[in-house]
Amino acid sequence: MTSPLDLAYRNASAFEPGARRHLDRLMANWNLLADLCFSDLLLYVPYRPLGDGPGSGEERLVVIGQVRPTTSQTLFEIDLVGEVVATSELPLVMESLRTGAISVGEQRNDTGEGHLRLECIPVRYSGQILGSLTRVWSPSIARRRGALERVYLELFERFSSMVAEGVFPFPDDELPVEHSPRVGDGVMVVDERGRITFASPNAVSALHRIGIMSAINGSTLSALGLDTTVVQDSFSTRLPVVEEVERRSDVTLLFRCLPLLARGEITGALVLLRDVSDVRRRDRLLLTKDATIREVHHRVKNNLQTISSLLRLQARRIDAPAARTALAEAERRIRAIAVVHEILSREAGDQVPFDEIVHALVKMARESNVGPHDVAVRVEGELGDIPAEMATPLSVVIGELLQNAIEHAFVPRGRDEPAPPARVDLVFRHDAEGYGVTVQDNGVGLPLGFDIESTRSLGLSIVRDLVRTQLNGTITMVDDGGTLVRIDVPVHRAGGAY
Asked: Is the four-CA dihedral 75, 76, 80, 84 of positive or negative sign?
């Protein structure tokens, strides 16, 4: 499905890849700007729909981005991305695009109630003006200015100048990390020497939580006892730097430092900080949980392998061929289940890479072939990652069908009827409808009158019941130049969905 942003870009002027990435980086980071200026931000670029050429009508602009502040109320209840506007309706935007300078003025509100204030900032990249970053706010609902508001608006103006100069967003800056601090989490401003000139109340509270109670303004992060070089690293690289500081084992602060530049010189930095103690605590719990789950699967695998070895030893001590065969079949089924737990012991999760299991099942089937025929097993297609609860029954089913084909499909034929090279094809399908498995051999085919519903074979009875009860799928067995078994498992099972 095409997103509104993609549609807006289609109607925008053609941008070379570097310019497009610059605009994308701006929109990935401009939550910060909206929060600092307590205003909505719109990104206008020249409009050029496909098929239009020069002189095709009045010049227009298209909105390719919109962001609302979290520090104030929004003026726009609807999304404007993709909206096309005549340039005559936005003279301030056009002025910023033509002059390459920041334009500030008023515009009548569409509702007819008062005027809106606009600040139009040209977005420059490699000397080219790509669009206009437009701040829109209403004086009637603006926040009353205190010390915090004045500092935030000053920071916004410094970033606006960087946008107009083409140095913000920063080149090659990665997208903000998950749980990246926002303006509301805590803000500190440092000067070009790294001294703190302002700390928001939330920033002060965060520092208090790690035991810093001394005066903050006029100090540096290192003087406060913080073991971090986030400001120095940001100044030296002239890029944003993210670093975590852990105090004791229960308090972790995440710092993100963005250098402030003016005419190529570093004039200070904005430091955002957030208490991520709860996030890191949950991360540690998840790591511990995953390690525990993997250990459980590892022990289950070891226990199953022990049981398999015991059955193998017991089979050697039994003289009755039927009993020995029964124990061998049970041992093989246990090994098929152990393969699943071996995979899960390496990477526990809700999904299992089933193609690794298939490789192990095919190897087991080949190694257990004691008949006179060398059977080639060909695998086509893949299932990819499948739900963990589906892996065990499907492994047993495939292992049973492979073993059944290798043992029973290639019985000796008559003297005048040469047998073709024995082959078993294992074909997988995974699409929107579900999962499909086909096992086909070129052997003698099914016995006359065979019916899977009334089969007395223990192996096929296990396969039939697992497919229907645990996989909620369907199974068919027919003659088709040999025996063809088709299994279909829908995406949505009764009682849940994969």
From this structure: negative
Ordered by start, the domain boundaries in the chain are: 4-144+152-165, 183-275, 278-349, 352-498
Cα(317)–Cα(112) distance, integer angstroms: 96
Alpha helices (H) along 347-479: 354-367, 388-408, 458-465
Residue 314 amino acid letter:
Q
CATH number of 183-275: 3.30.450.20
Please give the full DSSP string across 259-270, using - where no structure is assigned: EEEETTEEEEEE
Asked if 4-144+152-165 and 183-275 have one fold, the answer is yes
Cα–Cα distance measured from residue 446 to residue 298, given in angstroms and rounded to the nearest whole number = 40
**Cα within 13 Å of Cα(435), Cβ side:** 21
pLDDT of residue 235: 94
Per-residue pLDDT tens over the stretch 468-485: 988 889 999 988 888 899
CA 333 to centroid of chain Cα atoms: 36
Matching residue, tokens 């200070």: 268
Name the CATH topology of 352-498. Answer: Heat Shock Protein 90 (3.30.565)
Give the other-Cβ count within 10 Å of 422's Cβ.
21
| DSSP code, position 47 | B
The string of pLDDT tens digits covering residues 209-258 is 888 888 889 999 888 888 889 999 999 999 999 888 887 667 888 899 99
> Between vectors from CA 366 to CA 365 and to CA 369, what angle results, nearest 5°?
90
> Which amino acid is residue 269, in one-letter code?
A
φ and ψ at residue 111, rounded to 5 degrees: -80, -10
Which residue from 262, 277, 279, 258 is spatially nearest to 36, judged by alpha carbons? Answer: 258
Residue in the block written with tokens 């967003």 = 169
Cis peptide upstream of residue 169 (ω within 30 degrees of 0) = yes
End-to-end CA gap in the chain: 23
pLDDT at 52: 47
321-346 and 388-408 helices, crossing angle to 10°: 150
DSSP-derived pairing of the beta strands 376-380 and 423-431: parallel
The residue assigned the tokens 């069908």 is: 401
Q: Which of 235, 216, 238 is nearest to 226 (CA)?
A: 216
Nearest one of 254, 244, 246, 196 to 220, comparing CA atoms: 196
- Rounded Cα distance between 353 and 342, Å, is 12
Domain 4-144+152-165: top CATH class: alpha beta
pTM value is: 0.62
Q: Which of 65, 66, 58, 114 is nearest to 89 (CA)?
A: 58
3 state SS of 201: helix
pLDDT digits (tens, 9 = 90+) for 54-76: 444 568 899 999 999 999 999 98
Q: CA-CA distance, 120 to 129, in Å (whole number)?
A: 12
pLDDT digits (tens, 9 = 90+) for 431-470: 888 899 999 988 888 888 888 888 888 888 888 998 998 8
